[in-house]
Amino acid sequence: MMTAAEIPLEHVLVLAVLLFLIGLTGVLVRRNVIFLLMSLEIMMNACGLAFVAAGARWADPDGQIMYMLVLSLAAAEVAVGLGLVLQLERRMRHLDIDAASELSG
Amino acid sequence: MEVVLFYIAASVSVVSTILVISRSNASHALVYLIVSLLAVAVVFYLMGAPFAAALEVVIYAGAIMVLFLFVVMMLNLGPSSTAAERAWLSPGMWIGPAILTFILFLVMLWVLIGIPDSTSGVAVTPKQVGERLFGSYLLAVELASILLLAALVGAYHLGRRYMRARREEIG
Questions:
Q1: B118 and A35: CB-CB below 8 Å?
Q2: pTM value > 0.80
Q3: What residue of B is the nearest CA neighbor of A26?
Q4: In this structure, which CATH number among 1.20.120.1200, 3.40.50.300, 2.30.40.10, 3.40.630.30 belongs to the domain B2-123?
Q5: What integer best gives the mean pLDDT of chain B?
Q6: Cα B64 to chain centroid, rounded
């Protein structure tokens, strides 16, 4: 049986919350679509960290499996999101997310 | 000793993530994001999840970040875009959201203080993960593959029209 460090669980969860809230701040503050996508990645990564921490608490593989599902979701979101970024740049000539408000008509 | 390593990796990831959202140049922010993801991979490894740590390095810091880098280079964001970003990043812009999310952080801190517990200290090997993944979670794997296929088709559709327009512009 492989051993690992016994890290206080609440400290790992505080780290996950901190990373998530930094990502949330990024989503609220930035107007560039690329930075918005990066902030979303930070938030998803923080969720994955919380899952892995919970899995490590009970030495159970379920946490890592949920992390892999979050990872595939993040990959799918980035692929479509970056395609939309390319379209936005072609139509609006810049990457300001507020330019997309014209879509509401 | 290993717990000390956790605190070092955790501080590296928090500091580099703060630098990600405060950069005005997209490629600099991406490099900091890669550093942050590598630090989180170290945390995964210390918690006894070597498979998740490897995935974090290979897929997140490798594949997804390279995708970002390609798009940033394709769009060729020049100095004018960096200047616009800098103008948007004035303190009046970020102080409000920062205070609000700090309040959320304090609330979560208050909730989390009640659980004095630690991780098990037993590593979960890739073999265990694989057995569970292709055992009871087989349906989830299939659903994830359908999601990725849908994303593939969507990204191809969006990108194809862009590349055609781009070729016509060039001549």
A1: no
A2: yes
A3: B21
A4: 1.20.120.1200
A5: 87
A6: 8
